[in-house]
Write a structure and sequence with these properties.
Length: 183
């Protein structure tokens, strides 16, 4: 799906161990953005741009059907944590994790990405919207360790300039790195 269709879909929705789904927080609200899957070619580009290895723990914030964390485990040997607020996506992603036989490496959690504990991530993947990226940016900078890579499909971080940008199928994929803490 192209960015224009994605944004049109968004307009229509201006609402607002290592196995199985878990739940974070009690009362969850509706999603900030609808589910639109990242095409597999772009998933591979995102994980490649972040140079994911088996040493990494990849967090997909708004994981949809779980494809990014599943690919991170299957192709790159990484651990994965997928977080989604929509129970249908959580159940779909959990099934997909089981079918892909990566439950020993990938955990799917139901929760709000703005409330989640993301401190153990070494790579964070995003396919949200620019305004959600901007809202998330202070949390990323505060809670992630220096050196953690962040990759975003299609949407930027405003005036935080990416370290790298790659174009694939007419869509940009961006890479940032959490800078060293100031003394
Ligand atoms: C555009 S889809 C991206 C799915 C997946 N990351 C991918 O790239 O294929 C955005 C996902 O974010 C989820 N989402 C939206 N708001 C959220 C929130 N506040 N917390 C957690 N997940 C959220 C939606 O349910 C949806 O599955």
């Amino acid at each position: 799906m192209q960015r224009r269709e994605f944004l049109m879909g968004m307009g229509a929705l201006t609402l607002t161990g290592w196995a199985g789904a878990q739940e974070q927080g009690a009362a969850l609200r509706g999603p900030d953005v609808i589910f639109v899957p990242t095409p597999n070619l772009i998933v591979n580009t995102m994980l490649g741009l972040a140079k994911v290895t088996k040493k990494d723990t990849v967090y997909d914030l708004g994981c949809g059907d779980g494809r990014i964390v599943i690919t991170a485990a299957q192709k790159f040997g990484a651990r994965g944590v997928g977080i989604d607020i929509d129970p249908d996506r959580v159940s779909e992603a959990t099934d997909n994790v089981r079918k892909a036989c990566v439950a020993y490496r990938v955990k799917i959690v139901r929760g709000d990405l703005f409330q989640a504990n993301i401190s153990e991530a070494t790579v964070v993947t995003l396919y949200l919207l620019t305004d959600l990226n901007l809202k998330l940016r202070p949390k990323l900078l505060k809670e992630l360790n220096p050196g953690t890579r962040i990759v975003s499909h299609a949407f930027s971080m405003g005036d935080w300039k990416p370290e790298r940008t790659e174009e694939v199928d007419g869509t940009n994929v961006y890479l940032w790195r959490i800078p060293p803490r100031k003394a």
